[in-house]
Amino acid sequence: MNFTLPYDQYLDMYRYKYLALYHALRAAILDGTLPGGARLPSTRKLAGLYLLSRGSASQVYDMLLADGYIKTERGRGTFVSGDGFFTGTGGSSGAGGSKPETGEPRAAGKGSGDLLNVSPEHEEEAAGGGYSGNAALVNRTSCPASSAAAPIRLTAWGERLMERKLSVYERAGADFISFRSSGMQMEHFPYAEWRSALNYAGGKQGGLLESYCPPQGDEGLRRAIAAHLRMTRGIRTDAEQIVLFSGSMQGIVILAQLLLEQGSSAVVEDPGFHGIRRAVEIGGGTLLPGRVDEAGLVPEDWEARLLFVTPSRQFPTGAVLPLDRRRRLLEWAQRHQAVIIEDDYDSEFRWGGRPIEPLKALDREERVVYVGSFTSSMFFGLRLGFAVLPPSLAEPVTAAKALYEPLPAGQLEQRALARFMGTGGYSRHLRRMTRIYGERARVFRALLAARLGTIFQALPGDAGLSIYARWLRTEAEFAAFRAAARRCGTDFRDAALYRIRPGSAAACFSFAHLDAEALEEGMNRLLLAWNDVQNGT
Hints:
Elements: H1 7-11, H2 17-30, E1 39-40, H3 43-50, H4 54-66, E2 70-73, E3 77-80, H5 120-124, H6 133-139, H7 156-163, E4 177-178, H8 191-202, H9 219-232, E5 242-245, H10 248-259, E6 265-270, H11 274-282, E7 286-293, E8 296-297, E9 306-309, H12 323-336, E10 339-343, H13 359-362, E11 368-373, E12 385-388, H14 391-404, H15 411-422, H16 425-452, E13 456-458, E14 466-471, H17 475-487, E15 490-491, E16 493-494, E17 506-510, H18 516-535
Parallel strand pairs: 4-15, 6-7, 9-10, 10-11
Antiparallel strand pairs: 1-3, 2-3, 5-12, 7-8, 11-12, 13-14, 14-17, 16-17
Helix pairs in contact: 2-4, 3-4, 8-15, 9-15, 10-11, 10-14, 16-18, 17-18
């Protein structure tokens, strides 16, 4: 049993080891380090850890017991009393902090006052010289209050990070129907196949659990991704050009750090994914908003060396970038010796139209980095992304990845996914989910047009897991509608989150995690919310 206390700092305050240990334990209980119900080591173990006699260790526990901080249970051991004593006020933090003014238990009989009765045994365990007699002990039984610590100074990068509040994903309650992204409904996930792949990845009797994985990720999975992209996206690549990340956002941040100088400009779509915008700003870059219309990003002759774009399905509008615009972007990159980072975040799911050729498949000058993710196609807990890199970037990105993760996270999952893809399970899963998501998209669009067609206009689309809808009323009514929707037990994303410059009100609805019944109930709640706005309630 590991058991560590800030014991040394108390030796500087108290003459006797048993007294230093008493105050160290007491402070740990008061500041919540040892919560209520925490099991404490036996007196024999405690004595051995802190080089006391067993009698002194027993004396420490007797004192804590008398003060009500701990309790003993015959045959079980010694525990911190009740629910603990931490109040969150910080008044007991620090070495030898004073007792709280109220609410601290105190047992009758022998208590802290008996500390002045120093036994010969304790005299032999004095922690250091400089004291004489009980008077010195009395003067040292309280720790002076420490002044508030000055805040630690951050770098410019750290300050930029703290200036931009990062969103934290939160799941909605059971009775709340959210049109925000909530991941896949796991009843449709082929768990038996995935479990078999996990068993295979571990090896016979766990023989592969300790196998080495390079910083760029499992080679088997990188080969499987390369084969999948050649077949489904027309991208000619191999395992040496692919690096795996703990989610695509990690890859985007690393790429921004490698390619964006302090103060230099990067083109980002407006509206566009806010995570990319934050990566540029926090990295010290300057945003160049790229205008987006009904056909996606509008090419311009930007003075920049880096461009982020979502051509297969523009985020969040869902627009598909036409072939002539794709070629113009590639020409711009060649002319400016720039790099294009293509974020293909959820185009695996397409239920209409012909397959869209990625920019990477058209790239002949090796100016495009293709970024993908398995989070949407597999399940929310699998934080696994990847990048297909030009040959000149493969080594620098691998070195940067190795700095953050010398040994990649989720190695078992990486090997399992390689097996899952290699046996055809991933392709079968995508086909099944594409049918399900396509039907849900059709249901959602029909409900939105029938129930809320006077206030929302959904943009066309035949792929992806969300739908962008323009607001047809006033800005004030939009704000009132959002508030009313939450009161009615539903919500959606305000597209203003994705804008750099002000624009018309719009909403982004995720639908893939909701079945037909939940979609209809959610739409009924949105209709009820709009009725409340109209009635002024």
